Structure formats: C-alpha cells, structure tokens
Amino acid sequence: MVSFYKPAKKSSRQAGPKILNKIYIDELDMQGQGVSTSHEPVLFVDGALPGETVDVQVTVSQKHVLKGKVKKRIATSAERQTPFCPHYAQCGGCQLQHIDPDSALVQRQHAMDAYWQRQLKLDALPWQPAISGPRPAYRRKARLAVDARDPQRVRLGYRQEGSKKIVDVTECPILVPPLQALITPMRTVLHAHAGSRFIGHIHLLAGDNLCQVTLKATRDLSDTMLADWQALATEHQFNLVLLDARNKTHILHQHDTLVCQTEADLTLSPEAEDFVQVNGPVNQQMIAQAMRWLDPQPQDVIADWFAGLGNFSLSLARRAAQVHAVEGVASMVHKAQSNAQAQGITNLHCVHLDLSDGQQVQQALGGQFTKILLDPSREGAAQVCQQLASTAIQQVLYVSCNPSSFTRDAGYLMNAGYRIEKISLIEMFPYTRHLEVMALFTRSLDAGQ
Description:
The chain is of the alpha/beta class and 449 residues long. It has three domains: 17-80, CATH 2.40.50.140; 141-253, CATH 2.40.50.1070; 279-447, 3-Layer(aba) Sandwich (Rossmann fold). 24% of the residues lie in helices and 28% in strands. It has ten helices and 22 strands. The protein has helices spanning 101-120, 177-180, 183-191, 223-236, 280-294, 313-319, 330-342, 358-364, 382-387, 403-415; strands spanning 19-24, 27-28, 34-36, 42-46, 53-61, 65-75, 141-147, 155-159, 166-168, 199-206, 211-217, 239-243, 249-253, 260-263, 266-268, 301-305, 322-327, 348-352, 371-374, 395-400, 419-426, 436-442. The protein has a seven-stranded mixed β-sheet with strand order 9-8-7-10-11-12-13, covered by helices on one side. It has a seven-stranded mixed β-sheet with strand order 18-17-16-19-20-22-21, sandwiched between helices. The N and C termini lie far apart (79 Å).
C-alpha cells in the first residue's frame, strides 16, 4: 500500500521576534554599538548608548553572543544627540549620528585598547591623540545611486541600510558644501529626461579647486540629455565625465585639472575610479603625522607599499634619498609616476606588483630599505608583514582601515621582534562605524635577519 506524506499543518500563530526587557548598556564596542556585558550571553545592541536602559529586539542569536536593536528606550544617556540629517533613519551611510562624536571617539578607543591588549597580549598601548577633522561637512567623494524607472519619481541617493532600495536624498550634510550644492540641479536634469533610467550611478569628487561629476551609463545616452548635463557643468564650473556602457571614458566638459593637496606644494589629481581619501583635512593631518613618526632622513631609502596615487610617497620623496612605491593597480602606478615627475620629484620609483604574492614580496624586499610604510586595503598586508622578519628594516609605519587584519598583521610583526612605539586612531569617516588606525612599529637592528 502506497503511503503519501502529508506535511504537518503549520500553526496560524507564529512566534514574533524575541524581546528582552530592561537591558542595561555598559559600554560601546569598536563599531559604536552598545554592549550589555552584564547580560548572559553578551548582548550587542545597535543604536544603544552606555548608561541607557532599553528594551531590545533580538536579531541574531548565537551560543555566546546575541545581537539586537533598540525597541524602546527606558532611560536615555546624556551623550545622546538628535541626528542632524533628515535621512538618518533610512540611509545606510551614517550609523552614529545619535552620539556626541568626541565621546564616541574616546569610548571606541577604549574598546579597541581592551581588544588589542587581549589579542596581542599587551599590558598597555602607547596611545597618541586621535586625528579628527571637520564635522559634519567632511566628505569630498561619494557615489549616488540613480533610479529613474518611474520618470515621475526619480530617486537620487544612497542605499537603504540592509536593502538595495535607494533612499531619495534632498540633502547630504556630510558632503563638503560644493558637492551638496550639486544635488538639486542634478536632480532637475534627471527629471527632465526619460533616458535618465540609463544612468546607474553618479560619482562625485571635490578637489581643492573644483568638482568632478562622473555619469555611469548602462546604455548610450541621448545627445539632448548630454547637452543638458554639459550646460549644467558649464554653469556650475565642474568637470563632467561619462563612463559609458562599455566602460570607456569620455570627457564631456573640462573646466580645469582637478587637484587634491596632500601637503604644501604637493598634489594628486585623481579620476573617478581612483582611490583617494574622502576626508581632505584628516588626510593632510595623517600625512603630517606619518612624516613625524617615520621621520624620513636624507639618507633613507623608504618603501611605500599599497601606495595608490602616491598619497604618502610624494611627502616621503621630498625628505628621503629614494622612495620605492608599490601599487597593485597598474593605471594608478602610471599616474603616480607621471604626477611626481610633473612636480619635479625624480627620486620616486613607482612599481606595479601584487603584494599578496609571497614571491613578488620576497623579491621586492631584497632592496636595501631602511623604513617601510604600509597602507593596505581591508585585506591587510599579511605576506609583507610575515616576510619583514628576514629583513633589516627597523621601522614599519602601518595605516589600517580594518581592526581585524591589523590585529593579525601586528601579531606577525611582533613575532618578528617589532614593538608598537606609537599608535593613534584616525577619524576619517565621522558618524560611521568605520575607524582607521596608525601604528609605528620599531625593533633593534639585531632583531632582524
């Protein structure tokens, strides 16, 4: 007799999200989340601040960790502030507008200090003052998504947190004023053309002298629409670039060469797809601190690896005998070399190498370097840090945008005999979970090789 499987009937009453009541928040973690260390297991609460008592909706439940978000605030911290952006509740860009930024920086440094003492088995860390800059109008680079499928409701803005939906922004207070001023006129042009649905995103970049707008098209755009964009560029005096569906670049309006100053009389000229630090004033402070800490001398031969367009390289070359800059993106290598030569810098040598390739790293480290500066992407510099043990390099300046990869790489360096001489936080992205760190590692000459 054949037996047919009948699935059990589902109950019409489904359990809702788990709510934890009257949770006291003890501290902030490195990312600015509230932490209830007194709860078992430890509970991380997005949007909560130390000293607050909250009801929490649990979003992630693991054996040793719970994660959640604030359902209701019962007691409020004196450090809580009203978010200044009207889109804060929907936009996924700024997560920490609800806390005083100075307080957040101090508390997050405390969290990082505890984490690194534990992970690196240190009794103390030699903290130096954190680098910070203007708030909120700090961001000189942004990418705005476009959704013009409905010509009556064109959306121009950022992705909603945890979603692909575009939050339509009327203003963005974290952008530098020249970029903020372009949002409304760009929206007007988008509304005027049905073909705007073929623009995937708009890349904004503010130099010290002018702005650049890059349109990323998914199909060919009409001559009429391009003419309106060119008229806008002429009126507002910005450079206009089209990146077409074949990824080919077209200069539609060139007002002048965009420049970003790194220090006095030294500049970069990034293009839309090039990496450049988004916070100009903080970047200049970061370079100045790197020069003080690494202290390049006229006899030094310095390696600047993960060099990009030469953000640090130019300043190093101004002070040292020779600088060997390595970058993994070939186009940026050529631009960096040309830019240096155009500014009269002849002791900078830019090379294209894959610094995740152990063999290439080993060969490159064969040079007689006295110091090295590392500024890698989030993946870190594992291969480089592991192989520094076999060199005579006494100082390593490491700039990191990822605490996890920095922890791993710091471990490699410390196992090779380096110690952390100085360390500081860099607030490149105020009001976000993102923090960067700069650390100077030193070792005695007999610790190498």
